[in-house]
């Protein structure tokens, strides 16, 4: 299947993913800036624009899954009004620890909370949240269909699912530069900054194996979402998928 890393089984894939993020947690934010030349900030802002959280004191509960060190939740909190609360859910305690420290440094710890959990089996009741976001996370989840089903389950009717993920570069010329960058620059850069080239080799392979935007949109529909759409940014390096639970 296109979800596995090389030929590892599903359970082993999660173990491998966990090792990757335990290994890189402390340098994760720095690596994002280096690898994307800061572009991940632009892509994340585009996601927050799409989310468009209310600027009022009306209650608004965001669930940010695979939220890692909190980037999406913090950005949303900055854009939102006083009624905003975010729950960052991630399977990896090291990433969450970094996130908690960052929340305190930003004085956002009263509005953003961090909980350990698996995207495939969320520990929240049905119809709890006003929005669900997942940024650069769903690619790491072994059974994407389960994660999408859980997203649908925990969303209130009338609320939105947004997924930011690496996609397929479709601009002639850029695709070759991107390949070169992926295979020749990222792993050595990963080794230099985190001491771990293998984790960044995983990153590159997992991007390649992720479904094409149309196929992924179909999976989102299959989970029950309506008005599914997507747009690609930066020549297809990333795509933002959107769906509504109606
Ligand atoms: N959303 C953050 C961002 O954009 O900076 C972090 C993205 S990071 C590339 C991917 C995250 O997915 C890691 O923190 C990892 O622990 C988490 N993850 C992997 N598998 C998961 C799962 N099954 N459930 C929840 N989180 C998972």
UniProtKB/TrEMBL annotation:
Keywords: Menaquinone biosynthesis, Methyltransferase, S-adenosyl-L-methionine, Transferase, Ubiquinone biosynthesis
Reaction(s) the record says it catalyses: a 2-demethylmenaquinol + S-adenosyl-L-methionine = a menaquinol + S-adenosyl-L-homocysteine + H(+); a 2-methoxy-6-(all-trans-polyprenyl)benzene-1,4-diol + S-adenosyl-L-methionine = a 5-methoxy-2-methyl-3-(all-trans-polyprenyl)benzene-1,4-diol + S-adenosyl-L-homocysteine + H(+)
Pfam families: Ubie_methyltran
Binding of S-adenosyl-L-methionine, residues: 69, 90, 118-119
EC number: 2.1.1.163, 2.1.1.201
Domain of life, per lineage: Bacteria
InterPro entries hit by this protein: SAM-dependent_MTases_sf, UbiE/COQ5_MeTrFase, UbiE/COQ5_MeTrFase_CS
GO biological process assignments: aerobic respiration; menaquinone biosynthetic process; methylation
Pathway: Cofactor biosynthesis; ubiquinone biosynthesis; Quinol/quinone metabolism; menaquinone biosynthesis; menaquinol from 1,4-dihydroxy-2-naphthoate: step 2/2
GO molecular function, one term: demethylmenaquinone methyltransferase activity
Key word DNA repair present: no
Signal peptide: none
TM helices/strands, residue ranges: none
HAMAP family noted in UniProt: MenG_UbiE_methyltr
Family: Belongs to the class I-like SAM-binding methyltransferase superfamily. MenG/UbiE family.
Function: Methyltransferase required for the conversion of demethylmenaquinol (DMKH2) to menaquinol (MKH2) and the conversion of 2-polyprenyl-6-methoxy-1,4-benzoquinol (DDMQH2) to 2-polyprenyl-3-methyl-6-methoxy-1,4-benzoquinol (DMQH2).
Designated name of the protein: Ubiquinone/menaquinone biosynthesis C-methyltransferase UbiE
């Amino acid at each position: 299947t296109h979800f596995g890393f090389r030929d590892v089984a599903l359970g082993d894939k999660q173990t491998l993913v966990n090792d990757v993020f335990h290994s890189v947690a402390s340098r994760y934010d720095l690596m994002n800036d280096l690898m994307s030349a800061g572009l991940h900030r632009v892509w994340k802002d585009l996601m927050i624009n799409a989310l468009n959280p209310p600027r009022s004191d009306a209650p608004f509960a965001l669930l940010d899954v695979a939220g890692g060190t909190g980037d999406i939740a913090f950005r949303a909190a900055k854009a939102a009004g006083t009624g905003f609360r975010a729950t960052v859910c991630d399977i990896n305690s090291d990433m969450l620890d970094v996130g908690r420290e960052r929340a305190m440094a930003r004085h956002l710890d009263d509005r953003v909370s961090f909980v350990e959990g698996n995207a495939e089996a969320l520990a929240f009741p049905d119809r709890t949240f006003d929005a669900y976001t997942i940024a650069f996370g769903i690619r790491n989840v072994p059974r994407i269909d389960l994660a999408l089903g859980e997203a649908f389950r925990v969303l209130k009717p009338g609320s939105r699912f947004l997924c930011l993920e690496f996609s397929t570069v479709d601009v002639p010329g850029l695709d070759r530069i991107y390949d070169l960058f992926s295979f020749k620059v990222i792993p050595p850069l990963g080794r230099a900054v985190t001491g771990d080239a293998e984790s960044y080799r995983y990153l590159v392979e997992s991007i390649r194996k992720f479904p094409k935007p149309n196929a992924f949109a179909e999976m989102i529909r299959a989970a029950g979402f309506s008005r599914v759409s997507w747009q690609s940014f930066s020549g297809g390096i990333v795509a933002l998928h959107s769906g509504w639970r109606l």
